[in-house]
Specification:
This protein is mainly alpha-helical and 327 residues long. It folds into two domains: 2-161, Up-down Bundle (Ferritin), CATH 1.20.1260.10; 169-325, no CATH class. The protein has helices at residues 2-6, 18-44, 48-76, 105-128, 133-147, 149-160, 163-195, 197-207, 210-235, 246-263, 273-298, 303-325, and strands at residues 11-12, 88-89. A two-stranded parallel sheet has the order 1-2.
């Protein structure tokens, strides 16, 4: 039922005339060319070699558009009907580059491959709907061209991004991911997991009331998450450091801080005190080893050194909480 409302006011593809099919193809090629150019512009600063690939693919789309316009002029004149993807029911959609940022290399290449596959299927169906021999030939040729774009991208990749350049670009992309998400997220997880140990377990052993302990843990975790998130976002705008968007870093830090604290606060929803405490202690162990794994995986810290540091720090904070709770 909802699809009727979504598709209201759209035309079926099978109802389009040959002129309208050409107009749709023209607008589609124009939009694809602009998307490829936007990809190139978005990649140019950090990945100049890959940007050249999309510059040339954008030029390919513009050449297709010119061929389609020439065909329309020869058959139907200069007035091209305004028909776009959104006007046709069931037609594939495109996301503009500003909706899919940041433009990571793998994300952009994957979207480009999907775009070419969709365009290939469109031209196959469009060719079947035409009776004019010249138009049918053009649409068939464009279908083959779109199908061949994957090999074109490969050739352009070999031309512009040889293996050593690709490795360098992937390393740069990984570094940016670490700076923007991993580092602030790891700092938040460490703060949330370790710093909340003392208040949560102090409250647990002091009151032996699981509900009160949960409320204290919840408030400590959420409060720490908000504090860490704002601190991360405010202290560095990312322009000079290259650490990326302060909003993304703040969210990564704040969310992971809250998650780290809630991990050993949630077990106190269990009414029985010692069961809740045992589960919370087990989760703390998992949290600390997860922190050590992330440090080893993304920060190149030797695993056993990271584990020793994290476990030692966590043990000291845990012991402090237990001692205070038993005073």
């Amino acid at each position: 039922m909802f699809s009727r409302f979504i598709n209201y006011g759209r035309r079926d593809f099978n109802s389009l005339s040959e002129q309208e099919i050409l107009a749709l193809a023209i607008s589609s090629e124009e939009e694809d060319g602009r998307i490829y150019q936007a990809y190139a512009d978005g990649l140019r600063e950090q990945y100049p070699a890959s940007a050249k690939i999309f510059d040339e693919m954008a030029e390919e789309e513009n050449d297709h558009r010119r061929q389609l316009i020439d065909m329309h002029k020869s058959r139907f004149g200069d007035r091209i009907p305004l028909i776009q993807r959104t006007h046709v029911r069931g037609y594939y959609d495109r996301k503009p580059d500003w909706l899919v940022r940041p433009l990571g290399l793998e994300k952009v290449r994957g979207m480009a491959a999907q775009m070419e596959e969709q365009a290939y299927r469109f031209y196959l169906q469009a060719a079947k709907r035409t009776t004019d021999a010249a138009t049918r030939k053009l649409l068939g040729d464009l279908a083959e061209a779109e199908k061949g774009h994957e090999s074109l991208a490969l050739r352009l990749g070999e031309k512009h991004t040889p293996e050593d350049v690709q490795d360098e670009e992937h390393q740069l992309e990984r570094k940016q991911f670490v700076l923007t998400y991993v580092q602030p997220g790891l700092a938040g997880l460490m703060d949330g997991s370790v710093s909340t140990l003392a208040p949560i377990f102090a409250a647990a052993f002091a009151t032996q009331d699981t509900w009160q302990t949960f409320l204290i843990g919840l408030s400590a975790s959420v409060g720490a998450g908000i504090s860490m998130g704002f601190t991360e976002a405010a202290h560095d705008d990312g322009v000079l450091s290259g650490r990326g968007s302060p909003m993304k870093r703040g969210l990564a830090s704040g969310i992971m801080t809250t998650v780290g604290g809630l991990g050993h606060a949630l077990p106190y929803l269990i009414p029985e005190f010692w069961t809740a405490t045992t589960v919370a202690m087990a989760i703390v162990f998992v949290e600390l080893w997860a922190i050590a794994w992330i440090q080893n995986r993304y920060m190149d810290t030797p695993f056993f050194r990271a584990a020793f540091q994290v476990v030692l720090g966590g043990a000291l904070v845990f012991a402090a909480g237990v001692l205070i709770g038993n005073v």
